[in-house]
Amino acid sequence: MNIVATTLPDVLVIEPRVFGDDRGFFFESFNQQQFNKGVGRDINFVQDNHSKSARGVLRGLHYQIEQAQGKLVRVVTGRVLDVAVDLRQTSSTFGQWVAVELTAENKRQLWVPAGFAHGFVVLSESAEFLYKTTDYYAPEKERCIAWNDPDLSIDWGIDFPPLLSAKDAAGVAFKDADYYR
């Protein structure tokens, strides 16, 4: 496994070693020991999630103000642009974001630690998205920041209006969001 730093020091791209030939491929998608060594601390995952979305669906920017979830995300079919926003008020990168393209072909994973908002937009006809979380989903503690907040100015890489859930369409402005201390 190869760990690649992003512009946000705690958000990491994980590139697995893929073994392939004319029959197909094999790779180890997760190894607790190697992952912990790569991120530099012990991480414990408690929940796995799987979603499928059509082209143009944008999910996010989600986070939980309590029971904050670290997420290890990857795409098994299709292509997405995955985004993480630093919501830790004491961080030197507070309010900054990073975007990484995840595809079934590149098999990259993104580590989004607790303290970050997370979202993605589907760039292919559809995409299946898998992620591990470090805490359980708690809907009463979930928050959503508007995907198109002008203070964040995230470049989602799309030239069409995204398809949003009612929850995502009602996301709050970054300046009005609850942050981590």
From TrEMBL:
Which top-level group of life is the source organism from? Bacteria
Q: Which UniProt keywords apply?
A: Isomerase
Q: Which GO-annotated molecular functions does the record name?
A: dTDP-4-dehydrorhamnose 3,5-epimerase activity
Q: Tell me its EC number(s), please.
A: 5.1.3.13
Q: Give the metabolic or biological pathway.
A: Carbohydrate biosynthesis; dTDP-L-rhamnose biosynthesis
Q: Which residues form a coiled coil?
A: none
Q: How does it assemble?
A: Homodimer.
The family annotation for this protein states: Belongs to the dTDP-4-dehydrorhamnose 3,5-epimerase family.
Function (record text): Catalyzes the epimerization of the C3' and C5'positions of dTDP-6-deoxy-D-xylo-4-hexulose, forming dTDP-6-deoxy-L-lyxo-4-hexulose.
Q: What is this protein called?
A: dTDP-4-dehydrorhamnose 3,5-epimerase
Report which gene this protein is encoded by: rfbC
